[in-house]
UniProtKB/TrEMBL annotation:
Sequence similarity: Belongs to the intradiol ring-cleavage dioxygenase family.
Coiled-coil region(s): none
InterPro entries: 1_2-HQD/HQD, Catechol_dOase_N, Intradiol_dOase_C, Intradiol_dOase_core, Intradiol_RC_Dioxygenase
Domain Intradiol ring-cleavage dioxygenases span(s) in chain numbering: 122-283
Any Pfam family: Dioxygenase_N
Cofactor(s) needed: Fe(3+)
Keyword presence, Iron: yes
One term of GO molecular function: catechol 1,2-dioxygenase activity
Record lineage: Bacteria, Pseudomonadati, Pseudomonadota, Betaproteobacteria, Burkholderiales
Protein name as it appears in the record: Intradiol ring-cleavage dioxygenase
GO biological process, one term: catechol-containing compound metabolic process
Domain of life: Bacteria
Naturally occurring in which organism (per UniProt): Verticiella sediminum
UniProt KW keywords: Dioxygenase, Iron, Metal-binding, Oxidoreductase
Keyword Iron attributed: yes
Length: 288
């Protein structure tokens, strides 16, 4: 294997993987090499451009920490995360659609009772959320576990304020025996994804904005059903058709209904205007 040129180097590299014991790894790397080489050929990639790409990926690596995952942001903003979600969560008609996970989920969010306060001090306009979790057959899914998380009115998740800040605007709760849930939180607002790093510079160079439309994240699990990772998006948001990470699906858009100050759904008197949101989640039975 000598004197490789632009016409035979792809075959030579792929040939070197022929003995790989892991068949799936061989399949993935063969395809990756083919597409990478095709990209270089198709664009007549210059050495300077190749090195700029190396520098960019190096910066993505350097800024990445346990709480700042720039590689996932890169995948999100290139539409790869949403493509992988779409490929892996094809569901029967009627099931709630999945969307991107995002980098701001945490494992140990505070547990709240039904009707509890998810905001836990996060700033924002009051919002009362209720809904049901059902199966594809329309029957309620009893006691489904819901994890919910969102940004505050300034557009930040609690974890973006540093490690010493208590968990806010996120919680874990269980639906009741009839699949019903309700909780109090703050109104979801549009926010820019972290854009003070290489991915932000990439977006700017491409003439793209970093904003996501207002949304509330949900992860819903129940025995016998596929885990659902999704958002509910706020109807009317100006970024619904230009989400920086391509996650919007029409079926996930809902109304945040505005109410004047007065009697609130939890039986209290709200001194300020508040919002309500209702959403029905339909889970995909395992093996469907
Ligand atoms: C989020 O919705 O939390 C998110 C998703 C992708 C990138 C950044 C944030
Ligand atoms: Fe989010």
């Amino acid at each position: 294997m000598r004197n490789l040129d632009e016409d035979n180097i792809t075959r030579a590299v792929i040939g070197m993987h022929a003995q790989a014991g892991n068949v799936r790894l061989r399949e993935l790397m063969t395809s990756l090499v083919q597409h990478l080489h095709a990209f270089a050929r198709e664009t007549a990639l210059t050495e300077e451009e190749w090195f700029q790409g190396i520098r960019f990926l190096t910066e993505v690596g350097h800024i990445t920490t346990g709480t700042r995952q720039e590689f996932i942001l890169l995948s999100d903003t290139l539409g790869l995360s949403m493509l992988v979600t779409a490929l892996n969560h094809k569901k029967p008609e009627g099931c709630t659609e999945s969307t991107v996970f995002g980098p701001f989920h945490v494992e140990d969010s505070p547990r709240v009772e039904l009707g509890g306060d998810v905001a836990n001090g996060a700033q924002g306009e009051p919002c009362f959320v209720c809904g049901t979790v059902a199966g594809l057959d329309g029957r309620p899914v009893p006691h489904a576990e819901l994890q919910v998380w969102q940004a505050d009115e300034a557009g930040y998740y609690d974890v973006q304020y540093g490690e010493d800040v208590p968990h806010r605007a996120r919680a874990t709760l269980n639906a009741d025996a009839e699949g019903n849930f309700h909780f109090k939180t703050i109104r979801a607002e549009a926010y820019p994804i972290p854009h003070d790093g290489p991915v932000g510079r990439m977006l700017e160079a491409l003439g793209r904005h970093p904003w996501r439309p207002a949304h509330l994240h949900f992860m819903i699990t129940a025995p016998g059903y596929e885990r659902l990772i999704t958002h509910v998006f706020r109807n009317g948001d100006r970024y619904l058709d230009s989400d920086a990470v391509f996650g919007v699906r029409s079926s996930l858009i809902a109304d945040w209904v505005e109410h004047p100050r007065g009697a609130a759904p939890d039986g209290t008197h709200s001194e300020v205007p508040f919002y309500t949101l209702a959403f029905r989640f339909v889970l995909n039975p395992d093996g469907a």
